[in-house]
Design a protein that fits this description.
The structure holds 3 protein chains of 3 kinds. By secondary structure, chain A is of the alpha/beta class. Chain A has a domain at 8-169 and 226-280: TIM Barrel, CATH 3.20.20.70. Helix content of chain A is 33%, strand content 22%. Chain A has 10 helices and 14 strands. In chain A, α1 (20-33) runs parallel beside α2 (50-66) and α9 runs antiparallel to α10. Chain A is globular. In chain B, β6 (137-139), α6 and β7 form a beta-alpha-beta unit. Chain B is 32% helix and 21% strand. Chain B contains 11 helices and 15 strands. Chain B has 2 domains: 2-168 and 250-324, Aldolase class I (TIM Barrel), CATH 3.20.20; 178-244, no CATH class. An 8-stranded parallel beta barrel of chain B has the order 1-2-3-4-5-6-7-14, surrounded by 6 helices. The longest helix of chain B has 15 residues, at 278-292. Chain C has helices at 2-13, 16-33, 89-97, 102-107, 117-128, 134-138, 146-163, and strands at residues 49-53, 58-63, 68-73, 83-87, 112-115. In chain C, a hairpin with a 4-residue loop joins β2 (58-63) and β3. Chain C is globular and about 40 Å long. Helices cover 47% and strands 15% of the residues of chain C. The two termini of chain C are 21 Å apart. Classes of the chains: A alpha/beta, B alpha/beta, C alpha+beta. The interface between B and C is large, with 38 and 34 residues.
């Protein structure tokens, strides 16, 4: 289904542990200055971290909404404890905001209510999207692992929901019951002293030969590279993707949002945007391999003359 | 207590049946299952023979269709489900909601088991799958402690199966893209993790270096037990620490907790290892079957025999023990 | 590996032609007994596999696509192979029979695998699906001495596997 409106921008939840004031001020600035249409907030990775942002949630929601942004509340990616289940039940019962499901329990509890589905839920095909839609999903952010061929097919065959694609940020690759981040500092999860907060952009994992490879974020493992879909926005928009998700890194997200907005609006060439992005977020090399059905860490540059041929 | 045993080939299937498996699980020779390895798995004809062999000996056959359907190619998975149902398999083990919905609608009488790849890790998640797809059994993720399982069991309306022996995923199953990040091929989409097509072993002086794609996964000094370069079991540098960042090259063994698992409400014990040979399958199944009916002392002696078969020749009780986290 | 050592000396002084002829005869016999042996290899059928016994000065090169086996002295391989498996002779034979678990052997580093890992894995899985029993399968070659060969072969294998700690039954 072709778009008549210009695609919108969604800011994903902050996956990392930032201290309360930093998290609050970041969102205040996003509210006041950034070109996002909607913002997803709430701890998504580790339930132990919840209390860091809780005191600031209300004021952040208020500021974002006052700035005209839609607020979506995120649920936890991995729910195993009774306390975590209770939190999700309370959130779903008590909230009048749209909720984004990131695990099966949230999907189950949200049945019949309008909701969003986050990129950590396995939506690999249109029948799955249709099933979720029949239960109330109105927005689905597709998993970052999906190649373009699948995205296009889901958008074509799928239900009438707003499909979103993960277009910026280190890629959430895995989540574990075990905390590798705490473990690397000689702690276990139950007694972690929140050491993951020492690395607001994650803790690098290098191979024995010194290659940058992965990044630890508490119980989550993300890519070392930063997924960057800028040259691909036109194709994605053409096949029916209506919004793009930018996942916060510890960098100037206002500037990142402005870049994507400019490319979507045709005001900036993708190649130029890519060069600028490298300066705004120099911590990570860029990748778009998943989109091109290649190694996820790969960076595929488009040949200028043949828009559809991709080469490494 | 049922013993659910793996088979990657018809020969391993017969060994598992002969060794006393209550059920054997297997998959077709394509991307519809999460052990889509070269030379492994069953043709339709091989599965027909296997089901017959199992049935004549009172053993059940489960078929795993536990990858996620590739958009546009759903027919491959639908056909696999249709063929498995027609061959009279006792259960389908599924992970994809789209496929679950299809099976529940078209074959309402077919027993549907929730694969570990679906990552149903709590009461609400499991009840969702029971209500939506009439799931009869859930294979719980290896992220739960025995106490977690005991808490979940009375609140769900389906049977519980857990992994007790074999390979151990460190990450929540079905939610890991580490493999495709490094190789382009993933468990969810291609049925492979850290695929052999991307594995290289390199000799470096006295050491053996294992690589996956462009990445060094481990370096073994001479004499050190080596492992397959599964990404999450590699040795890496994190800060100033060098070591197994996610998990040591160990495999899971919670048979020592048999009584606690029974008390927690588990009805079936699953052995991982469709990629292992028939000799392994036979030995493990025979030993665990014997252990199920043995007294605790005898059980410990039986189980110690299996140590040499394990990856890295070490075992762990994984997340079943809270300290692992 | 006393047995292997005592075997290795006479093999190393045998002319290559004799070795080649013998191994080809044994190989053909196996294929006759197990005609579908290489079916599971799929796309890996066309590859070449080297089996390298540690204690012997020779290498066996198998090409499933043309059902051929070559015997070469170590260091005299003219064409590169796609994959190779190196280890004690009796482990290679046990692997052939599916008596030992290749993963377990590899984890303990008794086997050394190089080259195309996917092809080796396919070969391992293909072999594993067949109930190869060397003494039984090869005994008919000994003609009237078949029963003797079978008994000797089984005793030999039992002894070798027990020495390696691989005897489970």
């Amino acid at each position: 289904m072709p778009n008549t409106h210009s695609p919108s921008l969604t800011m994903g939840p902050v996956y990392y542990l930032w201290d309360g004031p930093k998290w609050r001020d970041f969102h205040f600035r996003v509210a006041d200055e950034a070109a996002f249409d909607r913002v997803v907030i709430g701890e998504t990775v580790c339930s132990k971290r919840q209390h860091f942002i809780e005191p600031h949630l209300a004021e952040v929601v208020e500021r974002l909404e006052a700035a005209g942004k839609t607020v979506i509340l995120s649920t936890m990616a991995l729910v195993t404890l009774e306390r975590e289940s209770r939190q999700i039940r309370d959130l779903i019962e008590g909230s009048d905001h749209l909720i984004e499901a990131n695990d099966l329990s949230a999907l189950g509890l949200l049945n019949g209510k309008p909701h969003a589905v986050g990129p950590l839920v396995n939506v690999y095909n249109a029948p799955t999207a249709r099933l979720l839609h029949s239960r109330g999903a109105g927005r689905i952010c597709l998993p970052p692992e999906l190649p373009f061929a699948s995205v296009r097919r889901i958008a074509a065959d799928g239900p009438d929901v707003a499909f979103e694609v993960f277009a910026f940020g280190r890629i959430p690759l895995a989540i574990s019951a075990r905390c590798a981040h705490a473990r690397s500092k000689g702690k276990i999860k139950d007694n972690c002293l929140f050491v993951c907060g020492e690395e607001p952009d994650g803790l690098p994992v290098r191979t024995l030969d010194g290659q940058s490879f992965l990044v630890l974020n508490g119980v989550q493992t993300v890519s070392h590279t930063c997924q960057t879909l800028l040259g691909e926005l036109a194709d994605l928009t053409a096949c029916g993707i209506t919004s793009f998700r930018l996942s916060p890194q510890d960098c100037d997200m206002v500037a990142i949002a402005a870049l994507y907005r400019s490319v979507l609006d045709g005001a900036l060439a993708p190649d130029e945007a890519i060069e600028r992005l490298r300066h705004i977020y120099p911590a990570a090399p860029l990748s778009n391999g998943f989109h091109h059905a290649k190694v996820g860490a790969a960076w595929v540059t488009r040949a200028r003359d043949t828009a559809n041929s991709a080469a490494l | 207590m049922e013993l659910i045993c793996p088979a990657g080939t018809p020969a391993a299937f017969r060994e598992a049946v002969d060794a006393g498996a209550d059920a054997v699980y297997c998959g077709f020779r394509d991307e519809t299952n999460a052990r889509n390895f070269p030379g492994l798995n069953f043709s339709r004809e091989e599965l027909r023979e296997a089901v017959g062999y199992a049935r004549s000996r009172g053993t059940q056959t489960f078929v795993a269709l536990n990858t996620f359907m590739r958009a546009g190619d759903e027919e491959i998975w639908y056909r696999a489900a249709a063929d498995a149902v027609a061959l009279g398999v006792d259960a389908l083990i599924l992970a994809d909601f789209g496929l679950m919905a299809h099976v529940a609608e078209i074959y309402p009488a077919q027993r549907l088991h929730v694969s570990v790849q679906a990552s149903a890790s709590n009461v609400d998640a499991i009840n969702f799958l029971v209500e939506a797809f009439n799931a009869k059994r859930v294979v719980l993720p290896r992220t739960l402690t025995i106490a977690d399982i005991a808490r979940i069991a009375p609140k769900i309306r389906c049977e519980i199966e857990v992994f007790v022996f074999g390979g151990l995923c460190v990450m929540a199953e079905g939610r890991c893209s580490l493999s495709s990040y490094a190789t382009g091929l993933s468990p969810n989409m291609n049925g492979v993790c850290s695929p052999a097509s991307h594995v290289h072993y390199r000799k470096e002086a006295d050491a053996l270096v294992s690589e996956l794609g462009d990445y060094t996964i481990n370096r073994f000094s001479s004499g050190e037990a080596a492992g397959y370069p599964t990404l999450c079991k590699g040795r890496f540098d994190v800060g100033d620490t060098r070591g197994y960042a996610f998990e040591d090259p160990v495999s899971l063994d919670v048979m020592g907790e048999l009584d606690a698992l029974t008390a927690a409400g588990v009805c079936a014990l699953k052995i991982e290892g469709r990629q292992r040979g028939k000799a392994y399958v036979s030995e493990v199944v025979k030993t665990l079957k014997e252990a199920l009916s043995a007294n605790p002392q005898r059980r410990a002696a039986l189980l110690s025999r299996l140590k040499g078969l394990s990856e890295g020749q070490k075992t762990t009780s994984g997340a079943y023990n809270k300290r692992w986290r | 590996m006393k047995l292997a050592a005592t075997l290795a000396v006479p093999i190393s002084i045998l002319p290559l032609g004799v070795l080649e002829q013998t191994s080809r005869m044994l190989f053909n016999r196996l294929l006759k007994q197990h005609p579908g042996l290489f079916e599971r290899l799929g796309e890996h059928r066309t590859k070449s596999f080297a089996f390298i016994p540690n204690e012997l000065p020779i290498v066996f090169i198998v090409r499933p696509s043309d059902n051929s086996i070559l015997t070469r002295r170590k260091g005299q391989i003219s064409h590169p192979v796609d994959a190779s498996v190196e280890g004690p002779l009796f482990m290679l034979l046990a692997l052939l029979e599916g008596r030992s678990d290749a993963d377990a052997l590899f984890f303990s580093r008794d086997l050394n695998v190089t080259g195309d890992m996917e092809a080796v894995l396919a070969m391992r899985n293909a072999l594993d699906d067949f109930a190869i029993d060397l003494p039984r399968d090869l005994a008919p070659l000994a003609g009237p001495f078949a029963p003797l060969f079978l008994r000797f072969g089984e005793r030999f294998r039992r002894h070798a596997l027990a020495k390696e700690g691989q005897e489970w039954n």
